[in-house]
Structures are given as structure tokens and as C-alpha cells.
Amino acid sequence: MSNTAAVVEVYFDGLCLPKNPGGIACYAYVIKEKGGRLLHSGSGVAAEPSAQSTNNVAEYTALIKALEWLDENGYTSHWVEVKGDSQLVVKQMNGEFRVKNKQIIPLFQKAALLRRKFRDISIAWVPREQNSEADKLSERAYNNALLENPGLLDMIK
Q: What EC number(s) does its UniProt record assign (predicted)?
């Protein structure tokens, strides 16, 4: 890491409620400077109730959306530390686990392509307690989805 590169921390999270799979998959991410100043955060619905709606889809969507924002806003030359509480996503992104699920493969490929744009990037697992801000945002995204479209729960089989 060079002395001139600022450190950016990214926290990502996803959930699928009220059941996984098949619930409402929501994502969230928080991007901060190393000192803690918020640069950006985002959240939303990754997938409406269907067989394709899972925690893993939500987690990957959060990672992709965060990396896209960093890329679009000129942070690819910064030292980026990505942190998430999904062991599956972190281990797949770091080459420790193979990606076998057909619906996850395109998300993994998109995240991997985005990752290559960054000069210095690490993706690490953190316990849920260290990911509480993104976790709360993903829960808020779920609650907002229900408020905006009460019929979503009726779609869950």
C-alpha cells in the first residue's frame, strides 16, 4: 500500500426474509474513509419473492453495488478493504470455495470483473457484530420494501 493511497472501508450485507430461499432478498452497503467518515451507503431489493431470491443473491448484490459505486466515483486507485459477514461470498471471492450454484455464477463473475478494476483491494470476513451498520440498513431495506409494496408478502409461497 502506498502512502498516498487513502484507505476506504466497505461493509456489505444481505438478507432474505421472511424465509430463505423464496423471501424478499435485500442488500445494503456502507462505504467509509478509514477514519470513519461516511462516503456513501446504499440499500434496496435484490430480488422479489421467487426461487431465485436467497441470502447469497442479496449478499452478492450488496458487494456488486458497492464496487460499482466505488468504480463510478473514482476510488479504483485507493486501497479498499471490503468486509462482510457472509463466509460463502468472502471465501468464493478469495478462491477458497468453488462457485457451484448456477444462479450465483453470474453474480460471482460480475463481482470478480469489478474487483479487477481496483489496484489494491482485499475482501475479508468479519463477525456480524462488526457489520452492524450494513446489517441494519439491509433490515431497513426489507421494511421499506414491505411498506412500499404490501403485496410482496402475498407472493411468498
A: 3.1.26.4
pTM of the model: 0.95
Q: How many CA atoms lie within 13 A of 30 on its CB side?
A: 19
CA 57 – CA 130 distance, rounded (Å) = 21
Q: How far apart are CA 16 and CA 98, in angstroms?
A: 22
Number of domains forming the structure of the chain: 1
**55: part of which helix (H) or strand (E)?**
helix 55-72
- Amino acid at position 49, single letter: P
CATH number of the domain within which 82 lies: 3.30.420.10
Q: Is 3 exposed, middle or buried (0-12, 13-18, 19+ CB in 10 A)?
A: exposed
pLDDT at site 13: 98
Give residues with Cβ within 8 angstroms of 9, minimum separation 6.
31, 32, 33, 34, 80, 81, 83
- Please, which residues bridge with residue 141 across strands? none
Residue listed under C-alpha cell 421494511: 143
Q: Is 42 within the bounds of a domain?
A: yes
Q: d(Cα 20, Cα 96) in Å, to the nearest integer?
A: 24
